[in-house]
UniProtKB/TrEMBL annotation, chains A, B:
InterPro entries: Fumarylacetoacetase-like_C, Fumarylacetoacetase_C_sf, Rv2993c-like_N. Keywords: Hydrolase, Metal-binding. One of its GO terms (molecular function) is hydrolase activity. This is Fumarylacetoacetate hydrolase family protein.
Length: 244, 244
């Protein structure tokens, strides 16, 4: 992604940047109405997400910050891309947005010390950890509440240069700001999370870590438009639909 | 798999039986010391597992049977095959075996009614839903406790003819029987689970459902050998190792 004045260009790459160095073809495409972005990655293995990783969000959910990262999985069938509709599932009447910084893993990663974690990261993107609050309360485990089809919008692209230490994480519903946090308030930061998760399980290239959401979550309904943003990274926007 | 007297033969297939009809090449291999079986499937997407799905096991865990299936995920990086070692993770001192009937999905499956569920099943295999009890108690969500590397032995093969309604589900530790249940005691049976899960999320060919474990779970330690068996399906055996 390159900007010139008010225009944004996408640089077209050859090969698979997950498995070889990025190889620009020289071709550039202007980002505009004629260009449709897809989810920048569909994990071959897993999305590992972190709950209650901002103190103010843990408080608004009626809980405290956990002593160690609260990990859960979202399946790759939950991933949708920019502008794809979030289709509200029939089993829930309470679907919430959760804007998050997402980490894309670049190399096979197992038992990595915190100080080397950054070298296993390909880059960053924006995630919406869409959650069915009613099912989350009743189910105990969150597989259905946070794993239904469409519950993991990712995009708009993977930024390989972002410094994740102190960037804004925001969401807007129909243009109104709902969440406005900063990653410096993460209870467990990116290097700690990569290291901690890799102690238990191997992270593969293309696996994604969702780092948790700041305070300000709320419900979405049919006809809404939700935007999640990470400062310097871009905006992930999705319309919200109910079929029935 | 074919038996003649006390010999067992594997029929070699061509192509990918997940995406086309099984195509026997005519070649047969005798199962013996020279043959090493691998995990019969590595899901491209997910393993969906069901907690507390036998009343006697829910009781031994100090809980009741849930009103709806208690779903959680195991990642494909947790899968190992027959005879692969279960390496006990450093973060836990309490690792348990859980023998289970595993369902292998054969077709893309979304919002399938219970009465059509069977046609989406490719076959069945045996699973060990290996669990770190201490992390399960402390973590809240079970991603680490049930998702670490090696926590999902699968095998010895996929049986496409099994009727799952009333078969024995057993485990043995160092030859001693520990679990001895029957699938007729499943709280939520296979057709219900396939239908219920598919209401929330798309199941892909090769996805696996673990149907829950009967009573009798217990801990394993370095040097143990654990065997899980489903009646008529075969034995999934794994040695247990601790590295340090």
């Amino acid at each position: 992604m390159q900007t010139e004045g008010d225009k944004t260009f996408l640089a077209v790459l050859g090969g698979d940047p997950l498995y070889m160095p990025a190889m620009p073809t020289g071709e550039r495409v202007e980002l505009g109405d004629g260009v449709r972005l897809l989810a920048p990655v569909i994990p071959r293995s897993k999305i590992v997400a972190v709950g209650k990783n901002y103190a103010a969000h843990a408080a608004e959910m009626g809980g405290e910050v956990p002593a160690s990262p609260l990990l859960f999985f979202k399946p790759n069938t939950a991933v949708i891309g920019p502008d794809d509709p979030i289709v509200l599932p029939d089993f829930s009447d309470e679907i919430s947005y959760e804007a998050e910084l997402a980490v894309v893993i670049g190399k096979v990663c197992k038992e990595v010390p915190e100080e080397h974690a950054a070298s296993y990261v390909l880059g960053y993107t924006v995630a919406n950890d869409v959650t069915a609050r009613d099912a989350q309360r009743t189910d105990g485990q969150w597989a259905r509440a946070k794993g239904f089809d469409g519950s993991c919008p990712l995009g708009p692209w993977i930024d390989t240069d972002l410094d994740p230490e102190d960037v804004g994480v925001m969401s807007r519903l129909n243009g109104e700001t709902k969440q406005d946090g900063r990653t410096r308030d993460l209870v467990f930061d990116v290097p700690f999370l990569v290291s901690y998760i890799s102690q238990a399980m191997t992270l593969l290239p293309g696996d994604v870590i969702l780092t948790g959401t700041p305070a300000g979550v709320g419900l979405m309904d049919h006809g809404d438009r939700v935007e999640c943003e990470v400062e310097g990274l871009g905006v992930l926007a999705n319309p919200v639909l109910r079929r029935n």
